[in-house]
Amino acid sequence: MTSTRKLGGFSLIEVLIVISIILMIAAISIPNLMRARMAANDSSAAKCLHTIEVGEIGYASAYPTVGYPTTMPPLGGPDPCIPTSAAGCLIDNDLATNGGGSGKSGYQFNATGSTSGDNPDNDEFYATATPSSPLTGTRSFCVADDGVIRAQPPGNVNLIPTYIACLGLTSLQN
What we know:
The chain is of the alpha+beta class. It has helices spanning 12-62, 93-96, 163-167, and strands at residues 107-114, 124-131, 141-144, 149-151, 170-171. It has one domain. The longest helix has 51 residues, at 12-62.
């Protein structure tokens, strides 16, 4: 007597149906994941600008004869950090050096101290956060010495070029 045994498994049609369902779910969820990631990067950039702003004010208070530093590296310092005017130890050195040039959380950060009027000290500053690409953030942010974080309209990912341009933007409503 011969018996016929049927081997278990999936047919080609069943496998193709499962793969197509997985692809449909991915097509729906991946864009939402990217939007959530960009929103998280935006929040991180605003928080980093707040950190830079606090560091700038602390630096100008600690070194009044220097004023605001003309660049960000003096706000940080290598570990173990000993505060000086060249390394204020006020913010994380990774942020102060802009992640070694690669940025942080999909954003590039800059801070510029400047002089105004007859005062030779750096008595005003502004800092910017610009997305590294349109896929890492939805807009650019800035903060000036007034402590207000401002943002360009969503979709505008260009560098905010000047202190005055920063002051002309709308503040975040947090």
